[in-house]
Design a protein that fits this description.
Strand content: 35-45%
Largest sheet: 5 strands, antiparallel
Distance between the termini: 41 Å
Helix content: 25-40%
Number of helices: 1
Strand order of the largest sheet: 4-3-2-1-5
Radius of gyration: 14 Å
Number of strands: 5
Shape: elongated
Length: 70
């Protein structure tokens, strides 16, 4: 039973990531919800589950779940 739940959870996680990945593009300006508050950055590279964003001149590896389009 637990094995089936894990499979379903992973499938849902991959679906959400795919939707977010299709939504964002390199060069997009995004809001990033972090521990330090709301930050604004630019996507410089897309990975499978995360994007590298330029925030105030530094590159950060940000999960798609933390980003919103501006």
């Amino acid at each position: 039973v637990i094995f089936l739940i894990k499979i379903k959870h992973n499938a849902l996680k991959e679906t959400r990531t795919a939707v977010k990945n299709a939504f964002f593009n390199v060069g997009d300006i995004v809001n990033i919800d972090s521990k330090n508050g709301l930050l604004v950055g630019t996507i410089t590279k897309m990975n499978r589950t995360r994007a590298i964003c330029d925030i105030k001149g530094k590159a950060y590896n940000v999960p798609f779940g933390m980003m919103e389009a501006v």
